[in-house]
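Good day; I would like, with your permission, to put a structural problem before you. A protein sequence and the structure tokens that stand for its backbone fold form the material at issue. I would ask you to consider whether the tokens describe a fold that such a sequence might reasonably adopt. I set the record out below, with my sincere thanks for your time.
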Amino acid sequence: MEQARIAWAVTGSGHYIEECIELMLTLDNVDLYLSQAGEEVLKMYGIQINDLRDKVRVYRDKAASAPPVGLFYKDYYQCLVLAPTTSNTIAKCVLGIADSLVTNLFSQAGKCRIPNIVYPCDIAPEMETTAPSGKVMVYPRKIDLEATNKIRDFEYTTVVESVSELETALKQQLS
């Protein structure tokens, strides 16, 4: 059997997306899952999906039932990474809503007891983030911060607050 792979999901957040993609491309055996908003954001940051296809398998959110999630039931993945992750996706995951490719991945990984690493875009009341034009300040709402705190308590879930923490958590997971 092929070595277990990493499922990496990108949502519509631009929060250090270039650094997240750079980190992803240093890894072997990665499948990239893109929400519809994730595809849009990659384009906004000048990241071409066809260029990524040379290095990773790419799955796009095009089917209502999210067929690729079945791979979690076949020990195909050793972990799921959601990086970066919008407050919308975090809120849906916290509420158990699995109505898109990425929220289905999170749900099924949890049901299969597959560890996941989540890098939310809303982690502090005041923070610097990346926009296509450069660094900007954002002020996440109380409800977004509450959802980020709730997802920290989920089984098999590690929440990271920076790309360096993401890299460390990945190294621990893969060792």
